[in-house]
Amino acid sequence: MSLTRLVLATANPDKVVEISALLPGVDLVSRPSDIPEVVEDGDTLEANALLKARAICAATGSPAVADDTGLEVMALGGAPGVWSARFAGENATYGDNVAKLIADLEGESDRTARFRTVAAIVTPDGEEIVVDGVTWGTIAIEPVGSGGFGYDPVFIPDDGDGRVYAQMTLDEKNALSQRGRAFRALAKTLAL
Length: 192
Prior knowledge:
The protein is α/β, with parallel strands linked by helices. The protein has a single domain (5-189), classed as Maf protein (Alpha-Beta Complex). Helices cover 29% and strands 23% of the residues. The chain has helices at 13-22, 45-60, 94-104, 170-176, 178-189, and strands at 5-8, 27-29, 64-73, 80-81, 112-122, 128-139, 155-157. Strands 1, 2, 3, 4, 5, 6 and 7 form a 7-stranded mixed β-sheet that branches. β1, α1 and β2 form a beta-alpha-beta unit. α4 packs across α5 (178-189). The longest helix is centred in the first third of the chain and has 16 residues, at 45-60. It is globular, with a radius of gyration of 16 Å. The termini are close together.
């Protein structure tokens, strides 16, 4: 498949920066402001990514790209998972979610976690591409660093150098991250 123009389903400026860096050569168009956020009521990352991509494709008549990311912490039975963005409540901030995660892991010795991103493209002719990327790591005892967003201040990737994502440059993070892996897989399917 060869697509050089995609409408982004996300309006999250942090995700836009990362996705733009991961899909060079693709004209990424912002979601039109008159199209509201898509309700993410799927019970899997795949379902939510496809919900968003299908809705934006239908609303714009153009190929759309969406992703959904979840942090799965083994000691918490895989939580927060698909509810990662709303872990501390419906209107939770990044800081609220991180604080809840740290509190829930207090006294826990197993801090193993994996970050997973599912990325999806949907075209007006009904073609759908779904890929995923996974990064295993550990949850830090406390947040550190000033970069990134979401759980970046507490996620230490196993194949990194001991720093959390929030201590890395965007290029360093993208080289190791689940979103980087998912969007590199997506770029391969687009023959970029």
